[in-house]
From TrEMBL:
Residues 455-577 form the Helicase XPB/Ssl2 N-terminal domain. The keyword Nuclease does not apply. The keyword Amino-acid biosynthesis does not apply. It comes from the Bacteria. This is Helicase conserved C-terminal domain-containing protein. Keywords: ATP-binding, Helicase, Hydrolase, Nucleotide-binding. Residues 618-628 have a biased composition (Basic and acidic residues). It holds the Pfam family Helicase_C_3. Residues 608-631 are annotated as: Disordered. GO terms for molecular function: helicase activity.
Length: 726
């Protein structure tokens, strides 16, 4: 028996068909419906239908448009004739796709577009008005068109493809060709326009189709997506270049976040980072400001940085992230970016601020996923032409092309893809497939360089890393020296300030020399030994002790010099004894100011023991910015659960139907029954009784002849059976 409604059509779905529906429209199972009735109700809502239509490709959407422009109950052959492109089999395949998305139902001979879908296309789908109540015969229509002048033709062209209605006062009055005073009235007199109401005229469908040459749309889309282009590069070269770019991304993010440990970055009122701070961070990491802004967004999406009051700080997750292998670190970044509800490139534009409001984009996650899916479908090495990619994405998502700056969004994503190694040398990398969910196989992971644990220390006070350093080695190397170049390896320069930073952190001269001896493949050059000795000798010659603070100088001349500096007043410095000064500021503040003066003080406790620098502060690991991302839906499991619920509901319905039959017979022959039902409080109860009356919605039972009885809704009846005890 043919389905008469969408609900009956869905009830006939196989488990595979239902899985397909839920894969395309996962909003229908958030949360899982109680039964098919609820599923159908959700599928018919305007919001769900709009979302489903947005996910149609250009060919599927055009077939749906043709159905919306056709009368209810149209057949696939008529739709094919109206389209004028594609083959009957291709039209039938698109119809089946729409059927599996619950946007239409019925066999190919009698197709019923869901009412909400028809409403979504508006009153004039494809710019076509209804057919006239009394259309002109074909011969008369041809003769009328022969009498159309240039002015009338301009009006017909204006109404032909977009909105087939126009305004005209007293449009419904009868007018002859001789009485017509303007081109619109001439078209009314010729029967080429018809009055829709007293103030509106419209171009009838039969006239429009004749002028269109029978075409539904001016430029029908291709049945299959356009090709991205035939040009390719060597797959092996692109694979290696992509892995190199991926590693550079990991390195750049690490450099950028580590910089927050050494310098204070305050947040703006909207939570963003100022352009000055972004530029300074980028300069220290050898990144352009727009790159720094984008990578801060990546780091935030991965939870590596977060706000701590007014400051931006690394999180404990960043410390864990730096200890994982390079391939896994890249994977964590890309997965977080893939599900990021923000648009990182926007943070690097003029006037924008990373982590601020400018990078918010509605639907960013779905747009990113759609463009990435097109990239991932391409063979490795296929060159990516941005304009060609826009055309392919527009075919897959025509709704985006209508309302979004698609060319700009595609260009943005390509810049991020190149930065992350998803494309390399302008071609698709195998990492693009990993970005959309494929596993990072061992062969790809092996392309990431293995970290090394040694440096080549040179006489010019530099150290060269022959490859990416082990996280703990890199951390100490950046403490002892300043990194001067980006890349998997890098060049580190030892300076007086960098070594003083290590002494401030609690390292002794012997510990530094021992570490360098263990991690230098070339030994310790003499110039570096001299520099270390000189910095160590001067480091701590001034000691700060809390009183609020006491400054003790080994040389009284140095104390006298300090008292003469303008900063002495701000610190409240005054002499206690030769070489001994008191300060009205906290010890940390005194140390900071003396360092700014170019001195090398150390802080001590009350016993005189040197205090090392505290561990860098960490922000609390953030949740997700914006809305909490939804858990992915397993469509097969959801279909299985939904079918089980529907079977349970059907079984209960059959039990109620059977109980109604028993109660109906008992009412007619007066036999006693045993009835099970659920009370208003949700408790199960059973009663032996006689059926007094039964209606469409309730049954009235009496336990004994004098009993006034009780009324039970049939919906609460669980079961009924003849009382064997009589």
């Amino acid at each position: 028996m043919a389905a008469r409604t969408l609900g009956e059509a869905l009830a006939a779905f196989s488990p595979d068909d239902l899985t397909t529906l839920l894969r395309h429209r996962e909003d229908l199972v958030r949360p899982l419906p109680a039964d098919f009735t609820e599923l159908v109700q959700r599928a018919l809502t305007p919001a769900s239908v709009a979302r489903a239509l947005d996910r149609l490709d250009a060919w599927q959407r055009t077939v749906a448009l043709a159905l919306a422009a056709s009368a209810d109950g149209a057949d696939a052959a008529g739709v094919h004739a109206l389209l004028g492109v594609g083959t009957p089999a291709e039209v039938a395949a698109a119809v089946q796709d729409l059927r599996l998305r619950a946007l239409l139902w019925g066999p190919d001979e009698e197709l019923h577009l869901v009412r909400t879908v028809r409403e979504a296309f508006g009153p004039h789908p494809a710019g076509l008005a209804p057919v006239s109540n009394r259309p002109l015969p074909a011969a008369e229509l041809d003769r009328a068109l022969e009498q159309v002048g240039d002015e009338e033709r301009v009006i017909l062209e204006r109404l032909l493809w977009q909105r087939p209605v126009g305004a005209l006062r007293q449009a419904d009055r009868r007018v002859t060709l001789a009485e017509a005073r303007n081109p619109v009235e001439r078209l009314l007199a010729l029967g080429l326009l018809r009055p829709a109401d007293p103030e509106t005229v419209l171009l009838p469908r039969e006239v429009a189709l004749l002028l269109r040459g029978g075409r539904l749309v001016a430029e029908p889309p291709p049945v299959h997506p356009p090709e991205l282009g035939p040009r390719s590069r060597s797959a092996s070269l692109v694979r290696g270049a992509g892995a190199g770019a991926a590693w550079a991304l990991v390195h750049d993010v690490e450099q950028l976040v580590e910089d927050l440990d050494r310098r204070t970055v305050s947040l703006l009122r909207d939570g963003g980072v100022s352009a000055r701070d972004v530029t300074a961070m980028g300069r220290r990491a050898e990144l352009r400001p727009e790159q720094s802004a984008m990578l801060l967004e990546w780091a935030s999406a991965a939870g590596l940085v977060a706000a701590d009051g007014p400051r931006l700080l690394p999180t404990a997750r960043f410390d864990r992230w730096t200890t994982t292998p390079g391939a896994q670190r890249w994977l964590q970044l890309v997965r977080a970016w893939r599900s990021n509800p923000r648009w990182p490139v926007a943070a690097g534009r003029a006037g924008a601020h990373p982590l601020g409001e400018e990078a918010e984009l509605r639907g960013a996650t779905e747009i990113r996923a759609g463009i990435l899916a097109v990239l991932a479908e391409q063979p490795v090495g296929r060159q990516v032409d941005p304009a060609g990619l826009v055309d392919v994405v527009a075919w897959h998502h025509p709704a985006w092309a209508e309302r979004l700056p698609l060319a700009e969004l595609v260009t943005d994503l390509l810049s991020e893809a190149e930065q992350a190694g998803l494309t390399a040398m302008g071609a698709v990398s195998p990492l693009a497939r990993v970005a959309v969910g494929a596993d990072l196989d061992p062969e790809l992971a092996a392309l990431f360089p293995d970290p090394v644990g040694h440096l080549v220390v040179q006489a010019d006070l530099t150290a060269v890393a022959p490859g990416p350093l082990l996280p703990e080695v890199a951390r100490v190397a950046r403490l002892l020296a300043t990194q001067e170049s980006r890349g998997g390896g890098g060049v580190y320069r030892f300076t007086e300030s960098s070594l003083r930073r290590a002494f401030d952190a609690g390292w002794s001269l012997a510990e530094i020399e021992q570490w360098l001896a263990e991690h230098s493949s070339t030994g310790l050059p003499q110039p570096l030994r001299y520099l270390l000795s000189d910095v160590a000798r001067r480091h701590g010659s001034i000691r700060v002790t809390p009183v609020l603070a006491v400054v003790r100088c080994d040389d009284d001349a140095q104390a006298t010099s300090l008292l003469g500096r303008p900063e002495a007043g701000a610190l409240g410095l005054h002499r206690l004894a030769p070489g001994l000064l008191a300060a009205a500021a906290e010890p940390d503040e005194v140390v900071r100011v003396l360092q700014q003066l170019g001195l090398a003080p150390v802080a001590t406790d009350a016993s005189g023991a040197t205090l090392t620098a505290p561990a860098p502060p960490r922000a609390r690991e953030p949740g997700h910015r914006g809305e909490e991302p939804l858990e992915p839906v397993d469509p097969a499991l959801a279909a299985e659960l939904l079918l089980a619920r529907e079977q349970d509901r059907s079984a209960r319905a059959r039990a109620v139907d059977s109980a109604v039959d028993v109660l109906t017979r008992a009412a007619s022959d007066g036999t006693r029954v045993v009835v099970d039902w659920v009370t208003d409080e949700g408790e199960s109860t059973t009663r032996r009784a006689r059926v007094l009356t039964i209606t469409a919605g309730a049954v009235r039972l009496a336990g004994s002849p004098g009993d006034r009885g009780v009324t039970v809704p049939l919906a609460r009846v669980v079961g009924a059976r003849v009382d064997a005890g009589g």
